[in-house]
Specification:
The chain contains 13 helices and 13 strands. With about 475 residues, the chain is of the alpha+beta class. It folds into four domains: about 130 residues, no CATH class; about 140 residues, no CATH class; about 50 residues, SH3 type barrels (Roll); about 110 residues, 2-Layer Sandwich (Alpha-Beta Plaits). It has a five-stranded antiparallel β-sheet. Strands 3-4-5 form a three-stranded antiparallel β-sheet. The radius of gyration is 40 Å and the shape is elongated.
């Protein structure tokens, strides 16, 4: 307290001496400006370094002097007195801070200094009155009652707007009835809805301007919550196929919901940040910088995986329930998450593939072209040139006909994929129906078993895996009690 009063006394002596000195002797701005605030209301911005105190130090000293002056009993009357070329501000006769021409921007005539001092005095009176109101229980009660009344009036006004909008839309529908005016009726309804929401937004902005900072932040987050809930309901209907939108489908509704909800919350946080208590303090800024540094250093991999997940979802290379092959992993897609894709193989295990890995490798989709079927079935054999290719085609198609779950339409077909040195490579392609086994590995196993049976019955030797020369007798399995041996 002694140091503060000593500094104020020295400043008063300096200001009195300035009455005999030219304006050029006044201190010049040499540091960043600092604003003195009371009850979250800016009072005055210091720009000059005075008696060795920077603008920030002057603002801190002035705030301490204000708090001490307001803590003493008294009417807290604000006054200002010329002190040379400076202006001294007092509360109940006690000096609290000084305003000098160097605190002003641009030209510094005496008339400009007096006008700035008058504005600062008015802001200081308002801030002191608000500080006293906060500590008065009766005024708090009356303010709460007025706030409730205003909230009720705003709610009634919003309800009335929606009622009038619906009535106006119905009246327009009656006036514009007829197939020829369908587009006009739709456009009129859209215009009414936009006008209604514009008025509601104006009411909300008016409410934001009337409530304190913390309540403003709470209201912003509440509106963000309502917006995300409405967005989730809308996107959920699209995901379930209950609603069809031209720019959105079932596959992209999920990631679009996550992106839009995240954008709403980020926007709400950016809007509410200035209203949070202590948002302008150095401690709050330090925590914000630390959090940003931690996110920038540790979240690069996470952000990359998330972006890969969104790219994979919007690329639509695979969907849940489809049978795919990614690298060496083959199976049914069970989920496509933000960071990984789950694939259930037909061998009794589940593989988790990072989305970045899935996005960087070719994806073979056995279900996308199957239409209403589940997946495509393939069987590959190598047969020597001594066997007519037409016979091989007929045997492979017979094996497909014997396999349960192979669709008759579209019909299975055979392609010759290569003419190797010692044999021909054949591939049987068939579509699995909805009655086929859920695991593609089991269905292919049944198809391969029937291929072996058909070729054995016809005495045609399968040359896989390698072929060097024709054996004395064809390597086929003669008919026998195969079922009993397998049992």
């Amino acid at each position: 307290m002694k140091a503060i009063m000593g500094g104020l006394a020295a400043l008063a002596m300096w200001a009195g001496a300035q009455a005999q000195e030219p304006a050029s002797a006044l201190p010049a701005a040499a540091a960043a400006p600092a604003t003195l605030a009371l009850a979250n209301r800016p009072v005055l911005t210091f720009r000059a370094t005075l008696l060795g105190d920077t603008p920030a130090e002057r603002a801190a000293l002035a705030r301490v002097a204000l708090d001490q002056a307001l803590a003493r009993p008294g009417p807290a009357a604000v006054s200002r007195t010329p002190a040379g070329e400076a202006v001294r501000f007092e509360i109940d006769g006690t000096p609290v801070f000084f305003l000098v021409p160097a605190d002003l921007e641009g030209p510094r005539p005496a008339a400009l200094l007096d006008a700035a001092a008058g504005q600062a005095e008015a802001r200081l009176r308002t801030a002191i009155a608000e500080t006293r109101e906060i500590a008065d229980p009766r005024r708090l009660a009356s303010g709460a009652a007025l706030a409730l009344a205003a909230t009720g009036a705003a709610w009634v006004a919003v309800r009335l707007l929606f009622v009038l909008s619906r009535r106006a839309a119905a009246r327009l529908g009656e006036r514009l009835a007829g197939s020829v005016l369908t587009h006009a009726r739709h456009g009129a309804r859209v215009a009414l809805r936009l006008g209604t929401w514009a008025l509601v937004l104006l009411l909300a902005l008016a409410a934001l301007g009337a409530v304190p900072g913390l309540l403003t932040a709470v209201l912003i987050f509440a509106l963000a919550r309502l917006a995300t809930q409405a967005n989730t309901l809308f996107m959920g209907r699209v995901e379930r196929g209950e609603l069809q939108v031209g720019w959105l489908d079932i596959d992209t509704a999920g990631p679009t919901r996550r992106l839009s909800n995240g954008a709403v919350w980020l926007f709400a946080l950016a809007m509410a940040y200035p209203y949070l208590p202590g948002a302008g303090s150095e401690a709050f800024k330090g925590v914000t910088v630390l959090a940003g540094l931690m996110l920038s250093l540790g979240a690069s991999g996470v952000v990359g995986q998330a972006m890969s997940g969104f790219s994979l979802m919007y690329a639509r290379a695979l969907r849940v329930g489809e049978y795919v092959k990614v690298g060496d992993t083959e199976g049914t897609v069970t989920s496509i998450g933000l960071f990984a894709t789950q694939v259930h193989t037909g061998m009794g295990d589940q593989v988790s593939l990072p989305n970045a890995v899935v996005l960087s490798q070719p994806v073979r989709n056995f279900s996308r072209l199957a239409g209403g079927a589940q997946f495509m079935l393939q069987a590959q054999v190598t047969i020597g040139y001594a066997t007519p290719w037409r016979q091989v085609h007929a045997l492979l198609l017979e094996a497909a006909a014997r396999t349960p779950g192979v669709a008759a339409e579209p019909a299975p077909y055979v392609v010759q994929t290569a003419l190797s040195d010692f044999y021909v490579e054949y591939r049987l392609c068939a579509w699995g129906t909805k009655s086929a086994p859920r695991r593609r590995a089991e269905a292919i196993s049944q198809l391969n078993a029937n291929v072996q049976d058909v070729f054995n019955e016809s005495g045609v030797q399968i040359m896989s895996p390698h072929y060097y020369a024709d054996p004395p007798q064809p390597q086929v399995v003669p008919p026998g009690p195969w079922a009993s041996k397998q049992a």
